[in-house]
Amino acid sequence: MADEKRLSARRKHTLKSCMLVVANNLLEAEAGVKADEREKFLAEKCPPLELPYSKEELTELCHKLHEQIDLSEEERYCIEFKLNMVLNEVRDLNIKIVDLRGKFKRPRLKKVRMSADAMLKALLGSKHTVNMDLRANLKQVKKEVKEEDKQLRDVGDWRKNVEDKSDRKKMFDS
């Protein structure tokens, strides 16, 4: 049954190559979408630069660019500050979780061979009076003797039994 379900090496190879072609096409499509999104974003945020020829126009352009840089830096600072606040909050919550759990490093315990009596004595100290002798706590079961078994034991010697039966036979004969 397992032999019927197995694929031949050639079939496996063709399936793998088909899967790789499909995956490659998907990756190329995804890369194209990302490139389009990037171009759209850059066109939106950074309009094409037209350099003026006069000195006054150049200074105006520099002032505009400085204002845009200031705005972007301000946004970056706000986002960075919010991120740091969130990270600190996550760190504090993790500390609270650890505290609530009561997580302590547990020492490795060594294996010790100890009887049940010794273990109870170590745990309870001098209060330990219970004896863990399990055989003493078992119930006593009396064996019932069946009547058939008694009769079989009472039969005793077979020769004697045959002689008794021969006496009976004589009674019927006479």
TrEMBL record:
Keywords: Actin-binding, Muscle protein. Troponin I is the inhibitory subunit of troponin, the thin filament regulatory complex which confers calcium-sensitivity to striated muscle actomyosin ATPase activity. PANTHER family: TROPONIN, TROPONIN I. Gene3D superfamilies: 1.20.5.350, 6.10.250.180. One of its GO terms (cellular component) is troponin complex. One of its GO terms (molecular function) is actin binding. It comes from the Eukaryota. One of its GO terms (biological process) is cardiac muscle contraction. The keyword Iron-sulfur does not apply. InterPro entries: Troponin (IPR001978), Troponin_I (IPR050875), Troponin_sf (IPR038077). Belongs to the troponin I family. This is Troponin I, fast skeletal muscle-like.
